[in-house]
């Protein structure tokens, strides 16, 4: 290993930024030389630039600007762009996050170039290979040299796939670190006033291909969402990839407010003040668990089952969504404050940084598995 090794973080979509910020900050405090490659998978200012500002991330050393496209076209552009940057930067370790196409492309490029890699959020599984993200997760974990798991069940999933235990570290959830850091700034009132929302409202975020990429699926989902809006006013920050399809399916109405994507602090402020969240996003399931906001996930499965067992999240079909919303609104939050998953204590970033720093020095740390629950 070089005397002053370099760590590169590959970030492409807004969840990556949220997960990376605590790790980047903690590595910086340990004096590790590092840089960020922004692939531009989320290229809109509201989907990326504002997240860099909200999370205090440094300017990237490269921005590939790959934009959107089919999985094949986007991944191909990412492979070409990342190979060039990795060869130019000559990192000692590349850290990837989550399950987006940028993560898959980076792990493939580094495997071909012989560059060591670490995967933050390893071992999450929905067991649905029809989800592009599931394919990305499995391939990434098979090729990564160091794997950081956010929850205990991930350890058994990785073991069943033949990943050596010596590579895996249970560190907790860095997305929750970012949430705790932002909590003092999460005030719903200014966002509610700016958007012209009533005091009681629900939030919906919908973008998964299975929900929005066909006319039939989008129409079924929109009809269900409109039914919910008759129970409670809805605000819907719309992801660019589903905007046209959802609009064509009729996502509009007197109690539905469609808005552009929001920055990290604004969005979580909105969620914090909501009576209910409807989503198909993975990260939102975790954030609502911490904030104690009832969450309905419009998917047949989740790679974050811990949110189900902790009582703030429920899987629903579009057909069952209106009735489930009625029940959730009546019941309110069902997880007592303070009862959160193990290691969701705001210290995941420092744990990841400690392992990476030791790895760079050639030390062989035992898997990180200890930590306290939040007060």
Automatic annotation (TrEMBL):
<dbReference type="GO" id="GO:0008761">
    <property type="term" value="F:UDP-N-acetylglucosamine 2-epimerase activity"/>
</dbReference>
<dbReference type="Pfam" id="PF02350">
    <property type="entry name" value="Epimerase_2"/>
</dbReference>
<dbReference type="InterPro" id="IPR029767">
    <property type="entry name" value="WecB-like"/>
</dbReference>
<comment type="similarity">
    <text>Belongs to the UDP-N-acetylglucosamine 2-epimerase family.</text>
</comment>
<protein>
    <submittedName>
        <fullName>UDP-N-acetylglucosamine 2-epimerase (Non-hydrolyzing)</fullName>
        <ecNumber>5.1.3.14</ecNumber>
    </submittedName>
</protein>
<dbReference type="InterPro" id="IPR003331">
    <property type="entry name" value="UDP_GlcNAc_Epimerase_2_dom"/>
</dbReference>
<keyword id="KW-0413">Isomerase</keyword>
<feature type="domain" description="UDP-N-acetylglucosamine 2-epimerase">
    <location>
        <begin position="32"/>
        <end position="356"/>
    </location>
</feature>
């Amino acid at each position: 290993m070089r005397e002053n090794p370099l760590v590169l973080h590959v970030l492409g979509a807004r969840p990556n930024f949220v997960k990376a910020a605590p790790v980047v900050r903690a590595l910086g405090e340990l004096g590790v030389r590092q840089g960020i490659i922004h692939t531009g998978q989320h290229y809109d200012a509201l989907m990326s630039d504002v997240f860099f500002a909200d999370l205090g991330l440094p300017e990237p050393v490269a921005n590939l600007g790959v934009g959107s496209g089919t999985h094949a076209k986007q991944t191909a552009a990412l492979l070409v762009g990342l190979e060039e940057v990795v060869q130019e930067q000559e990192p000692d370790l590349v850290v990837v996050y989550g399950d987006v196409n940028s993560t898959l492309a980076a792990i493939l490029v580094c495997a071909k170039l012989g560059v060591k890699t670490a995967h933050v959020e390893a071992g999450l599984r929905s067991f649905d290979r029809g989800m592009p993200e599931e394919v990305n997760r499995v391939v990434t974990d098979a090729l990564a040299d160091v794997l950081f798991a956010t929850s205990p069940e991930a350890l058994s999933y990785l073991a069943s796939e033949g990943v050596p235990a010596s590579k895996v570290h249970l560190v907790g959830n860095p997305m929750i670190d970012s949430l705790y850091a932002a909590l003092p700034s999460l005030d719903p009132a200014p966002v509610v006033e700016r958007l012209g929302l009533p005091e009681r409202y629900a939030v919906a975020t919908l973008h998964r291909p299975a929900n929005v990429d066909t006319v039939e699926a989008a129409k079924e989902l929109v009809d269900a969402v409109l039914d919910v809006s008759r129970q409670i006013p809805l605000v819907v920050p719309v992801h660019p990839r589903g905007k046209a399809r959802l609009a064509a399916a009729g996502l509009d109405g007197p109690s539905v407010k469609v808005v552009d994507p929001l920055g990290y602090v604004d969005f979580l402020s909105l969620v914090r003040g909501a009576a209910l969240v409807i989503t198909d996003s993975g990260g939102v399931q975790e954030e609502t668990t911490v904030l104690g906001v009832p969450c309905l996930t419009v998917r047949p499965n989740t790679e974050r089952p811990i949110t189900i067992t902790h009582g703030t999240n429920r899987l629903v079909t579009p057909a069952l969504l209106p009735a489930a919303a009625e029940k959730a609104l009546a019941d309110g939050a069902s997880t007592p404050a303070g009862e959160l998953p193990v290691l969701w204590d705001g210290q995941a970033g420092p744990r990841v940084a400690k392992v990476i720093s030791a790895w760079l020095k050639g030390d062989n740390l035992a898997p990180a598995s200890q930590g306290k629950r939040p007060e």
